[in-house]
Write a structure and sequence with these properties.
The complex is a heterodimer of chains A (about 575) and B (about 200). Chain A has about 575 residues and is α/β, with parallel strands linked by helices. Helix content of chain A is about 20%, strand content about 20%. Helix content of chain B is about 50%, strand content about 0%. Classes of the chains: A alpha/beta (about 575), B mainly alpha (about 200).
Amino acid sequence: MADQEINLTKTYDAVVIGSGAAGGMAAHVLTSRGLKVLMLEAGKKLPIEKELRSMQWPYDNPTRGALPPDRHSLTFNEYTIRRPPYGPGFEKSKHLHSYVGSTDYVKNIVVDERENPFTGTNYAWVRARCLGGKTNIWGRLALRLSDYDFKAKSRDGYGEDWPISYSDLAPYYDKVDLYLGITGVKENLPYLPDSIFQRPTKLNCAEVTLKQGVQKMGRVLTQYRAGVTTDGLKHNQYRSRCFGRGACERKGGCDIHAAFDSPTGLIYPAADTGNLTLRTNAVVREVTVDPQTGKASGVHFIDSETMKDYTVRAKVVIVAASTLESARLLLLSKSRQHPNGLANSSGHVGHNFCEHIMGPGVTGQAKDLVGKPSTLDDGRPGGFYLTRFHNLTEKHPKFIRGYGFEGGSGARMFPEGADRHGFGASFKEEVRKNQGSYVSMGAFGEVLARYENYVDLDPVVKDKWGIPALRFHYKFGDNEHRMAEDMKETAQEMFEAAGFNIVHVNSRILTEGWSIHELGTARMGSDPKTSVLNQFQQSHDVKNLFVVDGSAFVNASCQNPTWTIMALCWRSCDYLADELGKGNL
Amino acid sequence: MSTDESINLKQDRRQWLKTSATVLGASLLPLPAAAQTGTAPAAPQAKPGETKSTARFFTPAQHTLVEELSETIIPADSHSGGAKAAKVADYIEQVLRETTDDNQKTLWREGLRLIDLMSQHYNGKSFVDSSSEERIAVLTVLSDNDHMTDLPEVRFFRDLKGLTVRGYYTSRIGIHDELEYKGNRMLTEFVGCDDPTPKSR
């Protein structure tokens, strides 16, 4: 699909800013309703299959899959010690990437940190500027939220309830399942509702052992619920079904698009309606406002390569630039009518910033697998998900909310355990004998939404395009630290229950941002004084402005957000199309 | 050498450093001392900015030494070929030729010389001329003391081991012959394990 030239004299029905999970879904829903949509993406359209090369053997890659030597990706220590992490000391590498950008396969997908600076507290901010954004490389864990999340305040008194219930969103989760495909196993859990699953893949032997071990403790381990089509999608010509090739293990995406990504899953089909115009390399710097009505009138954007400035008009503006970029754009869009930034009469834009805390976890070994012949363990979209178990029926004395674990086991292309001590014949033999026996898992826990955790605009620092950078004021709090303590203890106790040898217990909390699940900076709510958006992700202040990405979340839950972002967006865009049709926007 | 009587590297190194007057320099001191001098020794073969990525990093003799070092770390055995067969030295050559990290280049040039000094001290001959038992003895001193990261020879050993492991297990021999990796191919069905647990629902 080629970029189309924008008609600058035309007023589009809707302009969508961003092409990730949210922007793609907005384009899909609105074009299928017959609206003329302009999609703006800040990055390039990459020849993505050539980037991902999912089945390339390491020895066929010039750098064995590592980043080329003129590039550097930030390490945990660099995030922790340096502020900002892209500061002095990195002059030698031409390009500097976030921690995710550590392989040859993602180097053009993630941004160059130096072109996209930010300031303030440490944050591992992972940004992908290219068509499809982070959906090109996401982890694919596709979970639903429940009323344990949407009505969390009613349960424990903290924060705010969402202005919707699970029953409002369930039909849209169903639509997302059916349109995009998801694999998993039904468990009938009230706090983790089932999807409409395609063919599941089996657990391997150590995972079954762990499942049985934790079951005795009343806990649930289920197959990794992956946003991957295992049966194929008859309505989508751009995506193949999963062939279990196993490259999912590698940081990077799926070059046959069995794993959902926004371009093949949503944008190309949207373009096939004839209603979508796509403009890449379009860095939006402001949402414009009609001086008479105070309503959104379109956007100003800068061509990322020519630096030329453009203005486009639309009846409705849909912000889907990712949680933090969307907040930044609203704050940048100051006008006489909206002096604190667009949609910000509440002062809540950029605030209530939340995500998932991660790091604590455990690695163990299934003793009975040591020395067994090599097995095929990675030919599937993922390992397992161990669901939340705290603060469901009883109240934990030390913290509120919960966490789940992602994990897996078995042989991989690069052997786990090759970092063992020693060398020589015994080292080599031990690596070989042990390679299939490792099991590991790491926790993802809810970070409470707090007003004091926020982003604003840096008064001095600007990005490559002269646009003010984002400044972070964000730290994990006491609840998160107490939860992290518990994560490492329960991880260990569950591996012990499964009879595994504990190899390593990880208690280190990774830098804020590491989960890449940032949420909450323009939250929904029924009170315009304490929220930015209504239940349809429509601005309380500006009727024809919608913010349809993770920024609308009221809390982070502990369950991964992408599927919820898309279900919410679908629901909001249905409402948007209805309202536009009625002349209410 | 026995593990219960492991060598005191910091004491020993005074001895083997004395054996060569030509290599004394700040780089041979433990790290804090080197930092105090404030000068990093210039790389003998190339100055920053002058290195062309096509120029070989290792001399032929150094390349042979790296081959033997990597083979000592991952040797051929009855199961599969070792680091030499997997051309790990060529991989390391490429990494060092292309890196923009001058400290790493310096570490390797010095490390290779220190290895021979150690070999002379413990075995009375160069590393390449030593028997495989004698080679193992030298690397055991470093491996047993691999927490002493203030010493350049220890930092060299850790980098040598890291690159050898990475080079070997990303090679054809490492992936297919040694580990007999089964994945990265089209599957009709993932075999997995049958789950005897009754359904929880």
